Amino acid sequence: MADGGSNPPGSTNFTSKDVQGRLFLCLKSSKYGDLRSKGVRWYLSSSNNSCIPRGIPKPRLIFFGIHAVSEITMGAQAKGLSDVKVKAAKPKEKDYTLTDGDGLQMRVRANGSKLWNFNYIHPATKKRINMGLGTFPEVGLAQARKRTVEARELVAQGLDPKEKRDADRQTLRATTEHTFKNVASAWFELKKDSVTTAYAEDIWRSLTLHVFPDLGATPISAITAPAVINLLRPLETKGSLETVKRLSQRLNEIMTYGVNSGLTHSNPLSGIRSVFKKPKKKNMAALAPDELKELMVTVANASIKRTTRCLIEWQLHTMTRPAEAATARWADIDIGKKIWTIPAERMKKRRTHIIPLTEQALELLEAIKPLSGHREHVFPADRNPRTHCNSQTANMALKRMGFEGRLVSHGMRSMASTILNEHGWDPELIEVALAHVDKDEVRSAYNRADYIDRRRPMMKWWSEHIKEAATGNLSISAIIDRLD
Length: 484
Known about the structure:
It is built from 20 helices and 10 strands.
């Protein structure tokens, strides 16, 4: 026996070509005691073929591997399990366990399934734990042993292999599954039920256009405020301050959803709105009461599609919002009772809204019926008649007619409110007609039959006023006369 000047005292040299045998004998003869059950790293000295444990001063070493006793002895000591034994294991009335050694076990279930487990003592709590290693035959004996060796090495380092595996899986999910777009999609599924269809479409469109191309594939845990601010700066520079404001709000909500869902630890976007310029609040452009005549004459003579013409006047007579008018469905209109019931999911305030229909409003329906009476929506889209027209259709038409900067389609509601108030109509009825609902108990009951009946005279007066403003030449006449 020679120590070569660097081997630890008590270690033994072996010149046999049987390396496995040398390792086995070395384990038994080391001055550190019988180390066969230690499961430590072992090396072969390139200078004298000796075997020494890791951490002992030594010359140039060649790493041999991580060895538990059952693997070190290889043939010198019998294995607990074999491929034949594993395959031959049959289910019994109750579950039972087969042991391979070093904590590797096979659990044979009564239903015939076979599960690999690594049974070990937690390095910190000292509690005995079972860690699943897979099922047989998907994971064979050799692979199960390999996973056991890897797990034992972690235990030797003071780490819990099960906790590490779970953390690794979580990291992988954060990279591949919990991307910003995926989390945004989950958030949107909840959000869309609390807003109108048109508003929901606007939310998703803004994210698709401005956010997803750059941040969609980024793990939500990697989202930072500087990255998002840099993304939105060009929109601010361009003057799209309202878009920046809305995106900041939506991104903040998505990140909050991610935190509450346990997908990320914090929300770095909670305060990003403060770093951008605030948009100046603008009232919806609306015409003065005495300009209603100009509007009606222009609409009557404009070169626009019948669908668009009817849409503008329908919105004016019913005092609805652009999206509510554009998404009107035949199924929601009761011609006999002369009412239009807008479902809560399509209302901004998320409350069903019932509108008494005047004779002029019913005439508009008769004018559009040849074009859309056989379809779901009263005002179908040109490119895809199976869906409704865009909520901005009326707006774009008003711009082409020369009202840009003076009137937007939403402003027609303001015009109606001003005129009705000036002519002494009950302010509460006007607010109800506009679906401006607050938390007051009286307002919350605005769809009661008596409220609807009280609104009919006001709605009739409003439609007659529109007709008079057109000096008797209501646009509907032009629609019927020139069925384009």
